[in-house]
Amino acid sequence: MNIGHSVCPHDCPSACALEVEILGRDRIGRVRGAAANSYTAGVVCAKVARYADRLHHPDRLTHPLLRTGSKGSGEFKRIGWDEALDRTAEAFRAATEAHGSESVWPYYYAGTMGIVQRDGIHRLRHEMRYSRQGNTICTSLCEAGWMAGVGRFTGPDPREMAVSDLIVVWGGNPVATQVNAMVHISRARKERGAQLVVIDPYRTGTAAVADMHLAPRPGTDGALACAVMHTSFRDGFADRDYMAKYSDNPAGLEAHLATRTPEWAEAITGIPAARIETFAALYNRTDRAYIRAGYGFTRMRNGAAQMHAVSCLPTVSGKWRHEGGGAFWNNRGIYNWNKTLVEGWDVRDTTTRALDMSRIGSVLTNVPDALEGGGPVHAMLIQNTNPAAVAPDSNRVRAGLMREDLFTCVHEQFMTDTALLADIVLPATMFLEHDDFYQAGGHGHIQIGAKLVEPPGECRSNHEVHQALALRLGATHRGFAMTAMELVDATLKLSGWPGADAIQAEHWHDVQPSFEDSHFLKGFGHPDKKFHFSPDWPRIGPNHAVMPRLPDHMATIDDASEETPFRLVTAPARQFLNTTFTQSEESRRREDRPTALIHPDDASKLGLQTGGKIRLGNARGEVVVHARIAAGMQPGVIIVESVWPNTAFEGGIGINALTSDDPAPPIGGAVFHDTAIWLRAEVFEVALAAE
Ligand SMILES: Nc1nc2c(c(=O)[nH]1)N[C@H]1C(S)=C(S)[C@@H](COP(=O)(O)OP(=O)(O)OC[C@H]3O[C@@H](n4cnc5c(=O)[nH]c(N)nc54)[C@H](O)[C@@H]3O)O[C@H]1N2
Ligand SMILES: Nc1nc2c(c(=O)[nH]1)N[C@H]1C(S)=C(S)[C@@H](COP(=O)(O)OP(=O)(O)OC[C@H]3O[C@@H](n4cnc5c(=O)[nH]c(N)nc54)[C@H](O)[C@@H]3O)O[C@H]1N2
Ligand code: SF4
Ligand SMILES: [Mo]
Fold this sequence. Notes:
Blueprint (H helix, E strand, L loop, with lengths): L1 E6 L9 E8 L2 E7 L12 H4 L1 H5 L9 E3 L8 E3 L2 H19 L7 E2 L6 H5 L1 H8 L3 E3 L5 H10 L16 E5 L3 H4 L2 H13 L2 E5 L5 H4 L3 E3 L6 H14 L5 H7 L3 H8 L4 H8 L3 H13 L3 E5 L9 H14 L9 E3 L11 H4 L10 E3 L3 H5 L14 E5 L3 H4 L3 H8 L5 E6 L11 E4 L8 E3 L6 E5 L12 H12 L10 H11 L5 H7 L1 E3 L4 H4 L18 H4 L25 E4 L15 H7 L3 E4 L1 H7 L6 E6 L2 E9 L7 E4 L34 E7 L1 H8 L1
Helix pairs in contact: 3-20, 5-20, 6-15, 10-13, 10-14, 10-15, 13-14
């Protein structure tokens, strides 16, 4: 059988090297992880193994569509590509003429992580001087917190987890969200008897297989981290020589932590002090202790401070020095991209406004501060993302997308919640149907995924849409004249890497920095080469005044109150990837239905049983889900694994009706796991139905 080499394009730190069975010019079979890739190690998640279901799904969009009914009616008719592109270009031109170029807002995210197909939208944006986009929906809080202390986006090679003696998965759930990390963790457990500790508010799939699970109240990891560091100083595990050489303010930190005892942390986190001591003792006495920081614990109003606090641990005890020791969040800093051709850096005008993508609801409903002092948005190209479901404050997002004076063209693979609200819908190729190249967040490989099969119907790639719109709008950047593979090749070379042919020949190119660099033996990423316990927050983001001067619990979360006594976490679902894969029957079957996990004590107080219907709400909205009683979390914590489409919910609005688009300091960022809610059993309805 013909096997094609590719890369998983989805928004997942694993960026798996794939081997795809090619069954015909437009047909694939099974998808497997490449065994020879040292990070993928022959493993992929179940949802990608059955990618044929997604690629050949009967509901794929295959022709351009024009809305015929009222907005959101779901009534569309088939039109040709020329008409669809002409209408879109005309709407952009009309908005520009009437309201200026910044009234057009190209909007994108990470449906594909391919650099040409994902980021090429900027070339059109910059040349046309359309509004820019602040990319805050996923990584900005992690970035701010990591930058604050470490100063560079890399860390000890994730493959070193296989030679660690203790792996701490902090605020992430790799069993669901990046399964390959588990391969390396499992090796350490099998070969070295390594311990796995998971820090997560609920018993995730990863927590369920761990040696120890600490379940803090959401948004309190800063306190936990401080208590662990307190014990390091108290019990003689602080590495004073290391800190003298490699950190900015060890004496200040020690004095500050004197009062941050495990008892102090117990009151904030809800984790008993004795358990904090047990974990701290394990951490303190293990040299090869690897903290794998996830994203989850940063999706909070205090998220940047939480990430910073956690990244301080290995500095206090000097663990960065050891193989299999230190901390890792993401490798995005190692690739050295020159995106001039892809993004049009040479025509970028940084005086155009940048609108915060997480605040799309506020932007489109014309909240003045969200518009950054400018006027309303009147036209959008939405590509590679599904904001009607994934962005916070869904009721507001919907109200914005329903505006009659807003034109939207949505380029999609499926009729998503966002596409349903569009004026024009364009059908998009999938990754095996176009050329692209990829970096990895969770390891250090550059990979190329070339086109392997023909797309169905009239699907076109993102790059082809950029080219066609550029032609109609008069954008002439040389990147528009290049094919996707020419952009791949040229960008690789401009960035100092081998070209496309060379990388395709070796299948992937390993650019993980040396041991010395990734363990920061020559110093950390700041100009003074030190790790910063006292961050220079003003350098990191404009809203810095509230940030703690030293690692701490930052008490700015949306805490439980009398009216909203529960804390909601909307953690990722294993069989979906954000809303991608929500069309796949097998994924839906395995996820069952939108469900809230609830502590047994809370359930019994409310007279709730597993399967009972409950309504969750706050000032922003309400949703109805089914309850499932679950142990392994604290009372008062509710988990709704996400992101189900809006259409899967009674009332047609999904979980992000409850989440807020408050921009978290210091630099903005969505706070998906930081939501106070009330909860009601839907007994009234049950009683009525029984009559
Ligand atoms: N199957 C699947 N895989 C995915 C995704 C998906 O939706 N589904 N999404 C992809 C994307 S876009 C991303 S960014 C990554 C995200 O991958 P992760 O690093 O796993 O981050 P999150 O998805 O935000 O959340 C992970 C965990 O953080 C926990 N958490 C929430 N609040 C807190 C807290 O206050 N403290 C602590 N300690 N933990 C907390 C949640 O309960 C959850 O289990 O995964 C990618 N992979
Ligand atoms: N409640 C809650 N909400 C969340 C999160 C959470 O944990 N909880 N996680 C947040 C996070 S971390 C993120 S990153 C965001 C992600 O949000 P999005 O980036 O919007 O992710 P998806 O929902 O997967 O939507 C991606 C869309 O891109 C389409 N697509 C894929 N490839 C292509 C392509 O090549 N071309 C085009 N045109 N389209 C393509 C897919 O069909 C899919 O509909 O969601 C956020 N929303
Ligand atoms: S684990 Fe992540 S990168 Fe690997 S196949 Fe699954 S979604 Fe793709
Ligand atoms: Mo994400």
